[in-house]
Specification:
This protein is mainly beta. The chain is about 10% helix and about 30% strand. The two termini are about 30 Å apart.
C-alpha cells in the first residue's frame, strides 16, 4: 500500500489524537499585538533571540538579485549541529560511494535550471551558503512554533472525512517493495499561480517509513516549491523537508531547524531557481537523487550533479535502516478561499493530456536497492485525490521510459 493510501486511511486516527491533545482544536498561537498594532515586545524579543540562534555568524555575505541575503557559514558552525543527536558528529564531506546504474539512458531536449544567487557571488571553501532568515519571514508564519513547519491546523478536527487541505497528484511503483535505499527523479520547474499567501504548490519526491497510526512516520522530501508565506515571494525554490514523528515535533523545511548537514559551497537550500519552464516554450529541469550511504547510513542528496549534503542516519528511527515507500508528484494546499476550491495551480496549471511543453512532468524514475544499484522503475500507478482539480497520468516511451504528467488548475467548472 502506498504512503498516500496509508495516509488517507490513518487520518481519522490522527484527527482523534489531535482532538485529544488540543481539546478539540489546533493551537496555532498567533502573535500577540499591542493596542498600537505592533507585535508585543516580549514576543519580538523571542523572535530576535531565535534569529540570533539560527543565523550563524558569516564569513561572507552575498546579496542575491532576488533580494535574498546568502550567508557563508563555516561548515562546522551550521545549524545542523544545534541538534543534540549530532553532538560530536563527524562531518562526512563526500559520499563513500555513488549508486551504480545499469539501466537505460533516458534523454531529453530540455535545459537545466540555475540558482539566482549564483549570478551575484559565491562562498569560499570551508563554508556553506545559507539563506538568511529575517524577522519578516518569522512574522508571516504567525508563531515561532509554526515557523518552518508543515501546518497541522490544516488537518481536519472533525471526523466527517479525511480532509486535510493538502491535495495530491502522485505516482508510486506498481509493485510493492519491502526495502528501498533511495530514489531519483527529474522534474520540470514552473512558477505556478498561488491564490493566497498561505497556500503552496510543489513538486517533490518522498522517501518514507513508519506510519501515521503509530506516530512514527519518517520522511525525507525534496523538490521545488512556490510558497509565499514561507519565502515572502512567488519564486520557485529548491526545498527539503524531514520528520521522524509524523510532522508532530521534529523536522522542518530547509535549514530552519537543526538536522540536514550541508557540505557543498554552491547550492542554497531554499534558493530561488531560474529560469523556469514556459507554456509551449523551453522546459527547464532539476534532477534529484537521495540515497542511503552504505558505509555511514547517512541519507545523501544530489542536486543536478552536486552532492549538497545529507541527513545523518541517527536523526531517524524507521529510516535508520531503509525506506518502505518512494513516491513522486505534486502537492498543493487548498485553504478554500472565499468558501470555494482554490485556483492555485499545481505544476503548470494544466492537466496531463496537454502533454509535453504544457503539462508538468516527472521522469527518469529510478530507485536504489540493497546493493546500492539504481534501477529504472518499470511500472507506476498514479493517484489523485481530487482528479477534477489536479490529476496524474502515466506514460511510457523509448526516450523517457516510464514517466507521468500531473497537475491542473484547481477551481474550474468540475472543481467548484
Amino acid at each position: 500500500m502506498s504512503f498516500f493510501n496509508k495516509f488517507v486511511r490513518s487520518l481519522l486516527v490522527l484527527q482523534l489524537v489531535v482532538l485529544v491533545i488540543n481539546n478539540g482544536s489546533i493551537d496555532v498561537s498567533a502573535w500577540k499585538y499591542t493596542s498600537t498594532g505592533q507585535v508585543d515586545p516580549l514576543e519580538m524579543e523571542k523572535i530576535k533571540q531565535y534569529l540570533e540562534k539560527i543565523n550563524k555568524p558569516a564569513v561572507k555575505s552575498v546579496e542575491s538579485p532576488d533580494g535574498d541575503i546568502i550567508d557563508c557559514i563555516p561548515i562546522d558552525k551550521q545549524p545542523a549541529f544545534d541538534n543534540p543527536l549530532l553532538k560530536n558528529h563527524n562531518i562526512q564531506m563526500a559520499p563513500s560511494t555513488m549508486p551504480t546504474y545499469t539501466g537505460g539512458n533516458y534523454t531529453s531536449n530540455t535545459e537545466s535550471v540555475r540558482q539566482v544567487w549564483n549570478d551575484a557571488g559565491s562562498c569560499p571553501d570551508g563554508t556553506v551558503p545559507i539563506r538568511r532568515t529575517t524577522i519578516e519571514d518569522v512574522l508571516r508564519a504567525g508563531s515561532l512554533s509554526q515557523f518552518g513547519k508543515k501546518k497541522l491546523n490544516y488537518i481536519s478536527t472533525t471526523v466527517t472525512g479525511p480532509t486535510t487541505g493538502h491535495e495530491y497528484a502522485i505516482a508510486h511503483p506498481t509493485q510493492p517493495q519491502s526495502s528501498i535505499y533511495g530514489t531519483m527523479a527529474t522534474f520540470n520547474v514552473w512558477d505556478p499561480y498561488i491564490e493566497v499567501d498561505n497556500e503552496f504548490s510543489l513538486s517533490q519526491l518522498w522517501i518514507t517509513a513508519g506510519s501515521y497510526q503509530d506516530m512514527d512516520l519518517n520522511t525525507i522530501e525534496a523538490g521545488w516549491q512556490v510558497y509565499p508565506m514561507l519565502y515572502g515571494d512567488r519564486s520557485a525554490r529548491l526545498f527539503i523537508y524531514w520528520t521522524r514523528d509524523a510532522y508532530q515535533t521534529t523536522g522542518c523545511y530547509n535549514l530552519l531547524c537543526s538536522g540536514f548537514v550541508q557540505t557543498d559551497t554552491s547550492v542554497v537550500i531554499a534558493g530561488a531557481l531560474s529560469p523556469v519552464s514556459t507554456y509551449g516554450g523551453t522546459q527547464y529541469e532539476i534532477t534529484l537523487l537521495i540515497w542511503k550511504d552504505p558505509s555511514t547510513g547517512n541519507w545523501w542528496m544530489r542536486y543536478q550533479n552536486i552532492y549538497v549534503g545529507y541527513w545523518p542516519g541517527n536523526l531517524f528511527t524507521r529510516l535508520s535502516t531503509y525506506a518502505t515507500t518512494a513516491e513522486w508528484g505534486g502537492e498543493i494546499v487548498n485553504s478554500s478561499p472565499n468558501g470555494v476550491h482554490t485556483s492555485t495551480d499545481m505544476g503548470s496549471g494544466h492537466f496531463p493530456p496537454e502533454g509535453y511543453g504544457k503539462a508538468s512532468y516527472i521522469r527518469n524514475l529510478q530507485n536504489v536497492d540493497s546493493t546500492n544499484t539504481l534501477y529504472s522503475v518499470q511500472s507506476i500507478t498514479t493517484y489523485a485525490d481530487h482528479p477534477n482539480c489536479y490529476d496524474a497520468k502515466s506514460y511510457t516511451d523509448t526516450n523517457w521510459g516510464v514517466y507521468f504528467y500531473y497537475g491542473g488548475s484547481g477551481k474550474n467548472t468540475l472543481c467548484p
